[in-house]
Amino acid sequence: MYASFGRVGDARRMLDQSRESYDVVCWNAMIDGYLRCGHVEAARELFETMPDKNVGSWNTMVSGLSRLGMIEEARRTFDLMQERDEISWSGMIDGYIRGGCYREALEVFNEMQRENFRPRKFVLSSVLAACANLGALDQGRWVHDYVKRNLIRLDAVLGTALVDMYAKCGRIDMAWKVFEETRDKEVSTWNAMIGGVAIHGRAEDAIELLVEMQREKLEPNGITFVGVLTACAHSGLVDEGLKILSSMERVYGVKPGVEHYGCIVDLLGRSGRLEEAEEVIRSMPMEPNKAVLGALLAACRIHGNVEFGERLGKVLLELDQGNGGRYALLSNIYAKAGKRDQVMEVRKLMKERGVKTDTGCSVLELGGEVHEFKMGDCSHPQSKEIYLFLETMIERLKTEGYVPDTSQVLFDIAEEQKEREIRYHSEKLAIAFGLINTEAKSTIRVVKNLRVCEDCHTAAKLISRVYDREIIVRDRVRYHHLKDGNCSCKDFW
């Protein structure tokens, strides 16, 4: 039906065929059809010329624009609504989440609360997804308490969302509790729990959950095995990971895909078995994708294999020219080996191709409010206090043996400038903010959009001991539980 839509005039002629066609439901369906086909101007013109609009008309525009990634225009439409229902709020929240705007999603949810709308389970599960991505534990706990206060049944949808939220907010203990309390578990619920223990480096738990699924006569799927193999990769369980890959189709009837081979390449690479990882790539029954090759390049950086990394990096820079992360990895490999000329060559190539790397960003939730930090940024209201405290903190760490690791600073600048460069990394700013604003001995939880660097990891371990704090850092790859100068990753990350 939608594919046959023409211009607005055609749609209006269709609606003019009978007086009954002026029914608002028909207009809403026509608008929805245009939006689903990507004809935004046609949908907008039809919407603006409607003789009568109801809340459903506005909801159709908000949801349709959100689906198309036009989130700012969706928000402008949402703000113009004189009347809203639960679908209005849900559409705006889902739109923000789909666009990766998690803070904005929570702001809309908080506004929804002020307007005295009672959220139902589908809105709650969306809000929990935002909390999971931001590490907003307080907000997530509020949702959980709301579910319990209002006697909302903990079905597979809510149970899965809560398990995922608690795991990604660093409370794997609460994730386990909710998992056990969820009666009607679906495969997605088990996958959320397996994925949760995986990013916390608890491979044995992930494998045990897979075995338990078998006992419960539940069939795992491809996502299940991505979680289990990821857990093995984060713990260095090479033999176990290889056994699981070989048993996927034979025992479970799941044919390994490129993502599963990617996990094995990552597992072997992290463990320093680069030649075996390369052999896996050669023997794959499908073409390796950029993610698989990227995992091997990351392993070259970890183990300082410059020759292999250079060869692989050059291939990736041609296959994935617009991905700034590939350039950063190869630059780091060169920088770690002291090859400044090659670093500059990579930077020159990035400039010529107009490629930029993602800016490091760390967030920390305090009292239900999410605070965001970027390297060298002074926009936070407490910036002056944070930077002063950070200077004192670094000097104190130096008395405890901390030596700044400047080997991966890519700029050709003086050593003192390099130290200042890494001093203001976003995770250090977030931790400093947490130390200033939280009670003694309380846990500090930080979420970073990129992989935490070696210097910040070393500093965070020392901070946990010197300031007697448990610090939980979630980076792009996994969780780091830092306490008493040690990390749960055992420096295998």
UniProtKB/TrEMBL annotation:
Keywords: Repeat
GO MF terms held by the record: RNA binding; zinc ion binding
Record Pfam families: DYW_deaminase, E_motif, PPR, PPR_2
GO BP field: RNA modification
Highest rank taxon of the organism: Eukaryota
Classification via InterPro entries: DYW_dom (IPR032867), E_motif (IPR046848), PPR_At4g14850-like_plant (IPR046960), PPR_rpt (IPR002885), TPR-like_helical_dom_sf (IPR011990)
Positions annotated as PPR repeat: 23-57, 85-119, 155-185, 186-220
Span of the signal peptide: none
Domain DYW: 401-493
Family indicated by similarity: Belongs to the PPR family. PCMP-H subfamily.
Protein name: DYW domain-containing protein
Organism expressing this protein natively: Punica granatum
